[in-house]
Specification:
homodimer; about 55% helix; five-stranded parallel β-sheet; alpha/beta; 5 strands; about 200 residues; about 10% strand
């Protein structure tokens, strides 16, 4: 039986929505924004700062890295400190049934038998439409925003987990929300969580 | 609505069994051995020869490649000829509802809207146990057989499709049969095929 669902997702795939809706149907909490708030409270960093650094690699050049280096305190830079705090909170909240979106929870909880590891992705066209619908237009084309965000998420994941992001064999189930639709993705996760994949006839 | 299910699978993951059982439940044919027989009939090659060359890259050294080169006829070696014949048969059989296991069918039918692209995988331990159970013991350790077969399948896939095997975003759904079990994987595919992912309560 699964206790926790850990969802990794491509930017704009609706993976967060899948998590929120599955949690609602299962009547368990979904941690995403709330996780950031807890990290903020425990670490002292501002929420906006955590949002930028809690699952994205920075893409600054060598000067940025020099500044990062100078900002190190006891060998950890700010991103490392957020990682440590976030990891602690994930280990804590995962003691009770919940859905956790992003933040390498799948990796952090990899040795647990009761964690369903999920990856949600979609084709670029569906994601671009979704990004504009949810986050609005911006000067940058949605395709560019998607590629940039995914690249930074992937780099962040690799940096802290030393495994590849988006490789099928790292997840128990990977779903194309563009092709299958959000609702069917939610149905499947709810069914797996309840160990009841028999369909109605 | 899906018409065809194309299943790629890691060696020993039970992906073929998932395909056979899903097809049975959906009352549609499953092509695996039968596909080989058709290729044999149309190409003149022996079944055993096709089995070895229809989804595995050879792993011979330079001398093998020289012999391959010498055997080329009209620019195609035997493996290319099998690929062409296999592709033709896949395009033909996919006109009617069916399940196709392996043989890059997911790639060959990539532009079709009505093909559900599936990847089945499992952890090495589950696969090793399954390999011994189904194919029996051999001088080679099952872990070595698994790694060797996957490496050759992956190389074959890359050679003919120029895309990566096992990357989640190349499939509509990827399933860990070791964790979820064969039956749940079958349930999910049948549900998606029938566009009915609502579970019984």
């Amino acid at each position: 039986m699964f206790k926790v669902i850990a969802i990794s997702r491509q930017f704009g795939s609706g993976g967060r929505t899948v998590g929120v809706q599955a949690a609602k149907r299962l009547n368990i909490p979904c941690y995403d924004q709330e996780l950031i708030e807890r990290v903020a409270k425990n670490s002292g960093f501002a929420k906006e700062y955590i949002e930028s650094y809690s699952e994205y690699a920075t893409h600054r050049g060598w000067l940025g890295r020099v500044i990062d280096g100078a900002a190190r305190f006891e060998g950890m830079n700010n991103q490392d400190k957020i990682w440590v705090e976030q990891r602690k909170i994930i280990l804590e909240i995962s003691q009770s049934p919940c859905v956790i979106v992003g933040r390498c929870a799948d990796y952090i909880l990899r040795d647990r038998d009761d964690v369903l590891k999920v990856f949600v992705h979609a084709d670029e066209k569906s994601r671009a439409e979704r990004v504009v619908k949810i986050y609005g237009e911006s000067a940058e084309k949605p395709e560019k925003r998607i590629r940039d965000k995914d690249k930074r998420r992937s780099a962040y994941y690799k940096n802290y987990t030393e495994t590849e992001w988006g490789v099928a064999s790292n997840y128990h189930i990977a779903l194309d929300s563009g092709k299958l639709g959000i609702e069917q993705c939610v149905d499947i996760l709810v069914a797996l969580y309840n160990k009841n994949t028999k369909l109605t006839t």
